[in-house]
Amino acid sequence: MAVRSALINVMIGAVRKAARALIRDFGEVQHLQVSKKGPADFVSAADRHAEDILYNELRKVRPAYGLLMEERGVVEGTDTSNRWLIDPLDGTTNFLHGLPHFAISVALERDGNLIAGVVYEPIHDEMFWAEKGGGAYLNDRRIRVSARRQMDESIFATGIPLKGKSDHGVFLRQLGAVMSVSAGVRRFGAAALDLAYVAAGRYDGFWESGLHPWDVGAGIVLIREAGGYVTGIGGGRDPQLGSDILAANDHLHRDLLSIVGTATDDGA
Ligand code: IPD
User: Are strands 65-69 and 79-90 parallel, antiparallel or unpaired?
Assistant: First the structure.
């Protein structure tokens, strides 16, 4: 049986409350797909509303902690050791299009180290949570990264850079390299959930560039606690504050790093 600490309970409580609002809004957004104005403004409001709930709930129980939030940005706390990293709606584009694959992601950073993470996918009521040293869980079940050792048996997730990003050529080289040696590449559209799925052994690995600390903070804790490896795409760099990330199970991390890294450097 999973034993949740007071910290994890606080995080899960805040996330569940924000998720109730998101679910209500998701029901609404599905009707707006066919409206003339489109649902974009509505989704921004839903995103901000969920963030307000997380802000209020976490401030109530840990008033001194700082926050780094996707919408509000940096909110300094009087306690400079502790900082929440918050993405109130990861998978915004999915949500906007009525695709039921999105999540809330909350991590706690203490003295620069990630110590706890929660990623909640409300459609299937899947709560992924982990605390440093305590293992990783999906609801009440302990999770581990997959045990696959062969690239050609493994599935990898990634994120595709969209319009306006400068690295399309690099991404196509990375994709070409991974797809030619693996059992498949997936792009589901929510990086925090991609990382949680690696922690749960559903994907064997994940890589993406152009991310932010709030997208990856909780997922990094989950993967480490589930026995996986996380670095930047270039290797050693701590991915926590970097914008690119590469994660995999303990057997495949080195292979994936080498394949994606070589493809990245090929055009340089
Ligand atoms: C996005 C999603 C997506 C990833 C983008 C992120 P958001 O986060 O995680 O999968 O490819 O790079 O920005 O904007 O929906 O919170």
Answer: parallel
Pocket test for ligand 1, best of 215, 220, 233, 245 (most atoms within 8 A of CB): 215
Residues 255, 248: Cα–Cα separation, whole Å: 9
Residue-wise pLDDT for 61-103, tens only, equals 999 999 999 989 999 999 999 999 999 999 999 999 999 999 9
pLDDT < 70 stretches in the chain:
1, 33-38, 237-241, 267-268
157 lines ligand 1 (CB under 6 A): no
Strands (E) across 101-179 are located at: 103-110, 113-121, 126-131, 136-138, 141-143, 155-158
Provide CB contacts within 8 A for 67, sequence distance 6+.
Answer: 55, 58, 59, 74, 75, 77, 83, 84, 86
Q: Whose CA is nearest to atom 7 of ligand 1?
A: 90
CB atoms closer than 10 angstroms to residue 62:
19
